Fold these 2 entries.
Entry 1:
Amino acid sequence: MVRSVRRCCLPAVLLWLCAAPVFGASWTQPTPEELKMTVDPAAPDAPAVYLLREEIVNEAVHYHRVYARIKILTEKGKEEYSDVEIPYEKGVDNVAAVEGRTIHADGTVVPFTGKPYQKELLKAGGVRIMAKVFSMPDVQVGSIVEYRYELQYGEYWYSPPRWLIQQPIYVHKAHYQFVPPAIELNELLDTDAFGVRKPVSRLLYLADLPQGTKMKEDLNGYELTVENIPPVPDEEYSPPMNSFSERVFFYYAPSMSGADYWNGMGKEWSKEVDRFAAPSDTIRQAVMQVTAPGDSDEVKLRKIYSAVMGLENTSFTREHSAAENRAEGLHVKTAGDIWAQKRGTDDEITWLFIAMARMAGMKADAMIVADRDENFLNTGYLNWDQLEAEIAIVTVGGKEKYFDPGERYCAFGQLHWRHAQVQGMRQTDKGPTLAVTPEGPYTENRVARLAELKMGADGALQGVIRIAMTGVEALRWRQRALVTDEATVKKEFEDEMQQRVPDGVVVKMNHFLNLTDPASQLMAVMDVSGSMGTATGKHVFVPGAFFEARVKPPFGEAKRQNPVDLHYPYVARDEVSLTLAAGLTMESLPTNAKVLLKNLALFQEVYGSKGSEYQQVRQMAMGTPLYKAEEYSQLRDFLQAASTQDQELLVLKRVPVAAATGAAGSGAQ
Amino acid sequence: MRVWPGLAIFFLAAAAAGHAGTVQLPDWMTQAVSQAATQAPLPDRWKDAKALFLLDDTVITVDGSGRAVERDRVVVKILRQQGRGYAMPVAYLSNDRKLKSFHVWSIGADGHPYAMKDSEYAEVGVSGGSVLYADERARVASPPGADPGGVVAWEIVQEPPPYFRESTWGFQKEVPTVRSNFEVDLAPGWHEEAVWSRHAPVSPVEVAPNHFRWEETNVDGIDLTDVALAPAWSALAGHMTVHFAADPLPQGDALWTRIGNWYTSLAAPRSEGGSDLAAAARSVAGQGDFMARLSGVADFMQQQIRYVAIEIGIGGWQPHAAEDVFRSRYGDCKDKATLMIAMLDAAGIRATWVSVDHRRGRIDPKAPSLFGDHMITAIEIPKGYDNPRLKAVVTARNGRRYLIFDPTNTYVPVGDLPEYEQGGYGVLAAGEDSQVIQLPVLDPDADTTERTAKFELDADGTLKGEVTLTRLGASSWQLRNALSMESAKEQREAMEQSLQLDFSAFTLDQETTKNIRQLDEPLTVEYQVTARSYAKSAGNLLLVRPRVLGDLAWGLPDKPRTVPISFDGLGVWRDNFDVKIPAGYTVDDVPDPVKLDVGFATYTSEVKAEGDVLHYQRRYVLKQLRLDPGEYGELRRLEAAIATDENSAAVLTKKQGVAGGGSGEGLLRK
């Protein structure tokens, strides 16, 4: 969505010169407590804290003022909060009235007397993005850093504020104020995501406020004061925390209500989809070319899916410029163009799939969804940009099935995990409507690892590994091959496996099967050599779980604040057989184990022997990828229990060769 | 309106726009392409190359006033997807580096030619990280047709900064180069001196009066991707630096002296401090002996002066005035060195600059050049003075002893030297006494890491104990820095992540640290840990890994080694662990002791059972920073011994057997 709103179509000129005069308020006198503070009891671990953060935005006179008072508590705080960078667009904005000072713990004041440097960040296409930068003088641990500036912009620009209440560090107090434009809102024009210019209807805001906080609204505008705001927790495997942080985003909306907005934008989007995917001779011929008259709908759809999957997906290679397309006599206006030129972006290929499915006589709808790796859709925030990826819904045999043809090599009838269990806008017979995509079953994402190994009396190992993958794991490697190449992926796969197997074991990639065929399971075949096991005088100890010998569980931290998103459910099964040479016999096997995480996950490891052959079967099934923060300790315990089991050892005994022949099978359970 | 990154991506992506009409490709581009197509098959060793430099052609023209104009032409053929990165034209410009022209052409894999327009290029600032501001920018292009099989060419004409009297020809790159030319066209009467690094010297052809030309063909690339313990790439790649001047140029050491003299004259005026600075310097230095005064100033530099780089024009080389750095309490490496020199001078100690490179091996004593990326100090030690803290000492040609000190690294005490600088070379800028020096390599005993721990093992396999980690020496700066910069929560998380390498399930308690900023004292980290299921029961056995903590192996692959081996730094690592075994158990078997001396390192390890305690101790000493590729086999032999030792188990037995087995046999194949 457009973030600036022009009042009229006049070219933008440097009218900031006649904007509001700079401000010259006095500084805040620090309290003795602030000066002598060495650790903040409210945030004992913090590198620095905001004593005060203030953002005043006045759209009537076109400025944003920022004022910050930051207490530096550690070396890290000194490193991170002593330099200030204020980005702006040259010719549109002006940064003025930059002032600052550093106050030492003893109350000594060191004013900032320099001039900010003007740093170029980007110049392209007639736009020049700059930043004013400066470094605060003589900052020490214990100092208070205090600065303010004013970002002014032209009379014909409007830029409503986006207040991030939660900052990277603790905020003792923050004050925000917004004075809306002094004109009728319908004088403003907004350009939407589809390039349509519309008059503004309302000033709206998205507000995720701290509990018990209320924003003051009156004729003068909006005012908000908050206190004691903790930072956003930063933890691995978190869902996109940008969707959950406390913030207030103001924006000028073209619609009177949320329903009107989503309905209106949904119609514009749906119209564009239908225009792009409209029937044409090219599409008709394409469908005739890839399908046969007697094919069932399912077969037709599989053939169409396979055909569009064969096109170059430029989202994974390189987006071609309009010039290149022109040079090749190509233009991209419809699905037919995509078929003709044999390449397109992820969204274009999805729409081509929909066009061909429709041409083949099936009901095919488009859906645009949020990317679960980036954000969740908030329908209370009237911003279409929250929706990022196009997927397809096709009715086959009376049932709706979800497809992700824009994700090259995604299996037929599956969604990339980033597009599963997320909200979006979909087409229906009654018009576009909001909907949620399904999460596929864990059985869609399978990894089966098979090792057949032979071990000599000296520990020398020989064998072969076969790893079969479907679902997300197969997709990961196939897509990796798209952005690199097969040789690189073979090496990366080999490196990853080398990190899992026991010390001394050498794995060499032999070949992949079906690397470019998403209709088949991807298989990696690897050769095994080297040696395995640790010997003492009488014994040899061999890792009980070949494929997990050096893998560590993912969560080291004992405590957690955020929920956990492991991205996708899956099931992994290992089967290892190890045949021992004469001279070695099994003394004992690890104890079988089965661990459950409620009904959400299962781990099982079983060991056995048959003659001189050791067998290990391991199964890990994660039924769901999402866990609440309060479930973290159970999840961690579960994964640690599995990891502990994986570290169990098989104990072999050295015996004279003649004796070994007769002792095969000892230790069997 | 203000989503900068999005804009950046948009404009970079849009940088390849209209190309109407017939495209005229430059002759040098088409010739390079056709020559590569018609010449003999490419060497087999290049078969996996990501890209090829078909042509890399530089001509530098120097007029009678010394003003240079450099013209670079490059033609790159993309062979694999990852080769695209070598075909991204970029030209640097700044207030002192004028970009006169920048042109880009390409040929798609289908043979279609393209020529980009000026309006299609983008310009980006190149400062970042700790560089608050630099006037250098980069003009970049995203050429059409840049796919495997495609060719991208560009030409840059620029005026290098007027104060540079040298230019470096990097004919060896990460990917192979088919042909690389370098020409210097000097004004009548001017002189050149070429020096070669990592390559045998080659004489130029004088193609015209005072116009010299060098050429290299079929140069292998140096790809260090995934090479463990690799030296810096720039320490391996062949290159040549040509110096030019109106007066005859000296050679060898005399050329180094000329370079150091130039820098001395550039920097020395900036070290002249006023009375305020001198008074402050005397205050922090105190009245003690040489070492005491030096320590006072060094502590001030390390604790009070923040690293912030502001580089404008010659400011990339010339420091800010010491007075300004002192007043603002910030500066970059050369600013810090300059302020330190000024303060020491006020305290009666003479010091000067040493230009170094943090990538050991980059500065080649055989190839005098300005090249370096870091500035440190050389502090003159009074004749006859000695102090055991003075470790990083070099003696100059004139017999003066200098202590080498890096005030930018705020965690390596004066007397010591960061391990990444040890063994490298630098230019001692001391006027007419300037020379290239090798930075000292400190004895392994100067850098120690020691872990001691006492554990108790329960019969259920749980291990509990107290661990003390002690580090002393230059390389402890990383841990000191991390502990200083991290919050208690971050420290705990880092420790938990570290312990995950040794334990599957554990809890960490009572972590304390000592002497983080007391740089001459041992950095100490103490903690308690409880690891569930540490010992594994197998039948009537209990298996215990005596090497409870710490991993010294590098993960070296079983592949032929072609590049030298480079370690971060020398040192001594010691582990002493006691494990009290549970009542009722006896020690049945312990790993064999290890004693290995491979010349460049020694490793000893021993497990002993004494009563109900298992004692584990090991000592690893690394004595050499760099090994030849031929020593890789010995290094792998050492690593194998270490890995075996680290994974060895002691066997405890109980009189009564422990039943194994359980349910789940149905999963097994019949």
Entry 2:
Amino acid sequence: MFQFENFDAFIAMGGHGPYVWAAYGLSLTIMAWLALAPLRRQRALLAELRQRLQAQRQRGQS
Amino acid sequence: MWQWFHKLGSPRWFYHISGKFLPWLALVSVVLIVTGVVWGLAFAPQDARQGNSFRIIYIHVPASFLALAGYYVMAAAGAVGMIWKMKLADMVMVAAAPLGAALTFIALFTGAVWGKPTWGTYWIWDARITSMLVLLFLYIGIIALSRSFSTRETSARACAILALVGTVNIPIIYKSVDWWYTLHQPATIKMTGAPSMHPDMFKPLLVMILGFYCFYALVLLLNTRTEILLRESRTTWVKELAEPK
């Protein structure tokens, strides 16, 4: 059952709003970053490797 | 058995197999964590004494669990890498360090913002909290050490030794609330006996703990895969990944 009378009460958390939302907000942001950062890094690494291989081939041809 | 062990030690095989698990692991983690967060924030009953600040438990306890369990994962990987010279184990060790550091930070941060309305202070040098801070420094030490050597073998060895020595801190963290008089409350969940918590409050916590375990496995796999791409970039199979035919 929903524990709060309305949405404003939910945000206020009975006066503990800033603490609760700060804890959840920062933690979930860090966790999203933890999962997304390696994916971005992998894409960058593969792109870098692709460029290096292309550069090597061009040098080989000329 | 030995064939399996060798296969597991092959970065190429690991990269291939983990790629199949990743989407499922991601799906399960997101479903469990979203369910746990909504349940914990809006539907679990508030605590009679602490009011709504108690809802921070749904992040604080799972993050602390994985910060500690993650240290064992890192130290065990370091030991395997050192004893059997398994490269993949070294990569897992390096992958576990930043993840563990982030989870320890989350545990400390959520503890601080929970402490303010409950104890009246963000920080206190009590045994549990101080030993958790030592854990954070151990993780950061491993990250720094892994980047400060020019040869991979020396680096892996040094990190494994530091990780193994640091494991003495883990039982201290666990037992700190029993050994010393601390402000931090004793463990809510024990391996033996029923949890000292109402089932309506406990169920969302269980969902969050499971979610955090899946999330940990997910990020550990992702970080290990990054490490594999970095170290195996001269092999044909990684070149083929970069330039699919």
